[in-house]
């Protein structure tokens, strides 16, 4: 093959510019959209119409945007869960299981019940948060301990624990707490519901109807109506968690240690760090975040423990964390993008389209890593001769 | 030199290879700035320069791994393009790497055949390869048996296998990248005989080294690079060590080390009958007895892999001591964790600086607080005090003249010498009482080496007890008050600064304990 030039990859030897990782991530998403469009065209679709529909179904109005955020909420927390583990190069792919166990443990508060259903919301929800995080943390502890103590491969153990978690959940909802034979528990009391925007519709709806400054403002941004908006408090958990994780990663001693162990365990040991304890801790924090996502999902969306509360959030979280280059704030943005993909997947036929897009995005992002490590250059075949 | 155009290997000679006006840029660095370099059949041309001077960039261009922005390569006067190592090999250019590229559990012939097409695909043609290897080995006096498994060979022999491999692949020009780094003095002498013969037979050799003695012992011409530019191209016979060193560094450097007389103080570090085994249960340290006093540098010499690393790690708390005791200031510190050893006043410059000494993806500033990030002033509660960390980093960067674009630069983008200075700075800043310096100047340029040596000697005068573990005999000799030699995990003998000649050290390094007797036979052998 005689090309007029050859493509060469040269290892980067200087610091990469700060904007480059973000640029490659954004670039790979754009390329993924284009590639998906080409595929759509090839199978006889109309890419532009699909794109327009996609936009309308996800960001087109406040109501659809609210749906997108609802889907993004668990992804933010699960994405953070993966990010913290990946920072230490612990490949926790068990966020799915930790999510389920978190949901299960949180449900115990209502289903045992641990407190009376008449208790104030703050007490019930507060306890459910603690239980959810604890459940996830325990589910992270086992693989963490096995990894730290016996060097058991965490990829295998976390993956396997996913199945155990799902089946464990199924046992309770099919056999013990089944609501009239359906694979779900009875709905929780209202005290165990996370506040939703729609719950305030009556109150603020009237307010808007009555006119005035706020009403005018709300109308001007197209938000006349908030009834039916599913957005719930869980998103605040996600945002707070992102800030906390940023603090840990970038400001705290512990964050330094996590990165240190991840980058060079030998040097970390030499620096006197307790690697065993840190592996277990990081896995527990990772599990706790995924567990919190599970708790938020059952208290904010379905209001009961049921089958298939996660359409694979735990696995999507891996992609989210990776695409966000483990940056907590980028996790939020990426989670919203993937939340949109999930929402769109419900609306667009064939529904596999959004999974196709997810797959292509991940593929592009992983490939784009090459650009961070190498400089790509075109070399003209005759360059050496001409220059002389 | 024969007059016909063929080499003993039967291949055509490379009469001349020229690299003209080579320019290679990396972001922020001009790695090669209009470099001219050439080598002719029958000569050994040394390429000398500090780390980061552009030697390896130039050679990588020759090997097709990098592409120059400007300039061209001319083979026998005709321009050629080299886009990959395969192109380079096809033109008859071979490389002998500093680290052997051999598969340990394969035979010589299998290693040579690796990656090449067999003459009767898909079956192997190892008998053909063996015959050819034998033929080449005979012609070049390389003493290599094609059927020996690599793992059973000594380091010097492996070096010869690499040469055979290159010749087999048709190399008429050989690039020798610091080929003596892992050899004993006697093995180096043998190797040089081979190189000289190869040159006499019409090969062209490029010899990369930073050891000035070797340049003078072996080469015909020297080209010196500094900061990507050629700062000197001279006949070896018309220059001297000091002139070359000046060209390399760009200023006067001292090649001799001032060792002020210091009266050693009390014993700081003591090893009593220390033995240790590795993960496979093989003994790596056998009955080591060693004392290092305050104000004293004790050198540990030996061929690579004879227990140097386990020795350093056993003291630092990274390798479990099976038997015996390690004492610091008469306190038993055997098998304490690394962190506890640091608290006891130990500093450690590990031999694998990139693996054990620094975190490549951390900034310079972050690397300075490796052990101390848990303590004030760097820790502020559960948070880090970035102001203090930055101030500390700036202070050490200035004090140890570490060349870095900024304190936020990732360590992986610094040169070896500067990384080593960083480690030295970090360790000395902790004001230790005992320091283990393992290969402190390996792969480090003359300027930085001079600096590191000066620092170690300064600390010696200040009363630091230093255990200097090094495979560089010149370094051990220049700095140490006493020298012990490791072989197979055992101490073969101890020599004072005055007694230690290269011959005596070489014999101990080869595992000869009865040194008097050996010296006798050695002298007679001459």
Low-pLDDT residue intervals, each spanning 5 or more residues of chain B: 522-526
Q: How many alpha or pi helices of chain A?
A: 16
Q: Describe the global form of chain A.
A: globular
| SS class of chain B | alpha/beta
Can you tell me the number of structural domains of chain B?
A: 3
Q: Roughly what is the average pLDDT of chain B, rounded to an integer?
A: 87
Which CATH class of the largest domain in chain B?
A: Alpha Beta
CATH architecture designation of the largest domain in chain B: 3-Layer(aba) Sandwich
CATH topology of the largest domain in chain B: Rossmann fold
Assembly classification: heterodimer
Distance between the termini of chain A: 25 Å
Number of helical runs of chain B? 18
Share in β-strands of chain B:
25-35%
Q: Mean of the pLDDT scores of chain A? A: 87
Counted beta strands of chain A = 2
Largest sheet of chain B: 6 strands, mixed
Query: What best-fitting shape of chain B do the alpha-carbon axes yield?
Result: globular
What is the number of beta strands of chain B?
22
Secondary-structure-derived class of chain A: mainly alpha
* Biggest sheet statistics of chain A: 2 strands, antiparallel
Walk me through the structure.
- The complex is a heterodimer of chains A (388) and B (526).
- Chain A has 388 residues and is mostly helical.
- Chain A has 16 helices and two strands.
- Chain A has helices spanning 20-42, 47-58, 62-87, 95-111, 121-150, 154-176, 201-209, 213-220, 234-251, 253-263, 265-270, 275-302, 313-323, 328-347, 352-373, 383-387, and strands at 5-11, 374-380.
- In chain A, helix 3 packs across helix 14 (328-347), helix 4 packs parallel to helix 6 (154-176) and helix 5 (121-150) runs antiparallel to helix 6.
- Chain A is globular, with a radius of gyration of 24 Å.
- The two termini of chain A are 25 Å apart.
- The relative contact order of chain A is 0.21.
- With 526 residues, chain B is α/β, with parallel strands linked by helices.
- Chain B folds into three domains: 1-92 and 172-253, P-loop containing nucleotide triphosphate hydrolases (Rossmann fold, 3-Layer(aba) Sandwich); 97-169, no CATH class; 267-357 and 431-525, Rossmann fold.
- In chain B, helix 4 packs across helix 5 (155-168).
- Chain B is globular.
- Residues 522-526 of chain B have low confidence and may be disordered.
- The A-B interface holds A 6, 8, 10, 12-15, 251-254, 256-257, 259-260, 263-264, 266-267, 269-273, 377, 379, 381-385, 387-388 and B 20-21, 26-29, 66-68, 70-74, 79-83, 316, 318, 337-340, 342, 348, 350, 355-362, 366, 369-371, 373-374, 379, 382-384, 405, 409-410, 413.
């Amino acid at each position: 093959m005689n090309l007029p030039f050859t493509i060469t990859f040269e290892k980067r030897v200087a610091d990469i510019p700060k904007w480059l990782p973000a640029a490659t991530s954004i670039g790979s998403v754009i390329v993924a959209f284009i590639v998906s469009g080409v595929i759509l065209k090839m199978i006889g679709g109309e890419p532009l119409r699909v794109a327009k529909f996609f936009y309308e179904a996800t960001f087109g109005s406040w109501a659809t945007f609210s749906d997108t955020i609802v889907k993004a909420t668990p992804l933010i927390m699960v994405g953070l869960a993966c990010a913290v583990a990946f920072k230490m190069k612990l490949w926790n792919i068990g966020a799915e299981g930790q999510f389920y166990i978190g949901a299960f443990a949180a449900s115990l508060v209502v289903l045992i019940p641990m407190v009376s259903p008449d208790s104030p919301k703050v007490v019930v929800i507060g306890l459910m948060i603690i239980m959810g995080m604890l459940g996830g943390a325990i589910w992270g502890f086992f693989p963490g301990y096995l990894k730290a103590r016996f060097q058991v491969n965490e990829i295998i153990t976390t993956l396997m624990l996913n199945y155990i978690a799902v089946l464990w959940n199924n046992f309770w909802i099919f056999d013990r707490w089944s609501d009239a034979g359906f694979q779900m528990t009875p709905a929780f009391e209202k005290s165990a519901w996370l506040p939703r925007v729609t719950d305030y519709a009556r109150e603020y709806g009237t307010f808007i109807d009555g006119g005035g400054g706020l009403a005018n403002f709300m109308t001007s941004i197209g938000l006349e109506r908030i009834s039916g908006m599913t957005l719930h408090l869980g998103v605040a958990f996600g945002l707070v968690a992102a800030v906390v994780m940023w603090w840990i990663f970038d400001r705290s001693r512990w964050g330094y240690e996590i990165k240190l162990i991840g980058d060079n365990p030998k040097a970390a040991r030499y620096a006197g760090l307790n690697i065993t304890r840190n592996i277990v801790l990081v896995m527990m924090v990772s599990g706790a975040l995924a567990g919190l996502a599970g708790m938020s999902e059952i208290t904010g969306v379905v209001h009961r423990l049921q089958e298939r509360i996660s359409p694979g959030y735990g696995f999507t979280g891996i992609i989210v964390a990776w695409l966000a280059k483990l940056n907590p704030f980028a996790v939020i943005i990426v989670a919203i993008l993937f939340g949109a993909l999930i929402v769109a997947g419900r609306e667009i036929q064939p529904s596999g389209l959004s999974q196709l897009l997810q797959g292509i995005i991940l593929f592009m992002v992983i490939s784009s890593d090459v650009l961070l490590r190498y400089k790509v250059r075109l070399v003209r075949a005759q360059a050496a001769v001409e220059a002389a | 030199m024969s007059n016909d155009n063929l080499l003993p290997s039967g291949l055509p000679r490379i009469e001349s290879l020229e690299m003209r006006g080579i320019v290679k840029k990396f972001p922020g660095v001009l790695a090669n700035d209009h470099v001219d370099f050439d080598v002719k059949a029958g000569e050994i041309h040394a390429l000398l320069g500090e780390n980061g001077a552009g030697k390896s960039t130039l050679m990588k261009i020759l090997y097709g791994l990098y592409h120059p922005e400007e300039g061209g390569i001319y083979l026998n006067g005709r321009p050629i393009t080299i886009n990959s190592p395969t192109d380079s090999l096809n033109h008859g250019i071979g490389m002998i790497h500093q680290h052997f590229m051999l598969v340990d559990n394969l035979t010589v012939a299998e290693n040579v055949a690796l990656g090449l097409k067999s003459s009767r695909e898909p079956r192997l043609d190892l008998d053909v390869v063996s015959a050819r290897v034998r033929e080449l080995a005979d012609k070049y006096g390389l003493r290599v048996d094609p059927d020996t498994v690599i793992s059973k060979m000594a380091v010097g022999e492996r070096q010869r296998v690499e040469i055979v491999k290159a010749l087999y692949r048709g190399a008429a020009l050989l690039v020798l990248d610091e080929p003596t780094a892992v050899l004993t003095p006697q093995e180096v002498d043998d190797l040089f005989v081979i190189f000289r013969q190869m040159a006499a037979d019409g090969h062209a050799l490029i010899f990369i080294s930073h050891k000035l003695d070797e340049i003078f012992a072996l080469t015909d011409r020297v080209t010196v690079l500094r900061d990507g530019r050629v700062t000197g191209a001279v006949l070896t016979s018309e220059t001297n060590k000091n002139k070359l060193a000046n060209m390399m560094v760009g200023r006067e450097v001292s090649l001799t080390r001032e060792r002020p007389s210091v009266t050693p103080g009390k014993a700081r570090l003591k090893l009593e009958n220390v033995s240790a085994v590795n993960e496979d249960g093989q003994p790596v340290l056998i009955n080591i007895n060693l004392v290092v006093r305050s104000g004293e540098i004790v050198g540990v010499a030996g061929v690579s892999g004879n227990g140097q690393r386990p020795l350093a790690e056993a003291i630092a708390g990274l390798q479990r001591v099976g038997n015996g005791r390690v004492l610091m200031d008469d306190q038993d510190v055997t098998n304490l964790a690394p962190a506890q050893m640091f608290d006891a006043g130990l500093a450690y410059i590990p031999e694998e600086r990139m693996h054990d000494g620094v975190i490549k993806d951390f900034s310079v500033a972050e690397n300075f607080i490796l052990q101390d990030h848990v303590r004030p002033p760097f820790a502020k509660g559960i948070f880090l005090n970035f102001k203090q960390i930055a101030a500390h980093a700036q202070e050490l960067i200035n004090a140890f003249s570490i060349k870095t674009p900024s304190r936020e630069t990732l360590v992986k983008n610094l040169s070896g010498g500067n990384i080593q200075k960083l480690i030295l700075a970090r360790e000395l800043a902790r004001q230790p009482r005992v320091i283990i310096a393992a290969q402190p100047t390996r792969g480090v340029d003359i300027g930085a080496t001079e600096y590191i040596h000066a620092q170690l000697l300064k600390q010696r005068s200040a009363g630091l007890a230093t255990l200097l573990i090094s495979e560089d005999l010149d370094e051990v000799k220049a700095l140490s008050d006493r020298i012990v030699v490791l072989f197979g995990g055992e101490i073969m003998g101890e020599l004072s600064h005055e007694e230690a000649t290269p011959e005596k050290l070489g014999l101990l390094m080869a595992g000869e304990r009865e040194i008097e007797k050996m010296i006798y036979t050695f002298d007679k052998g001459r």
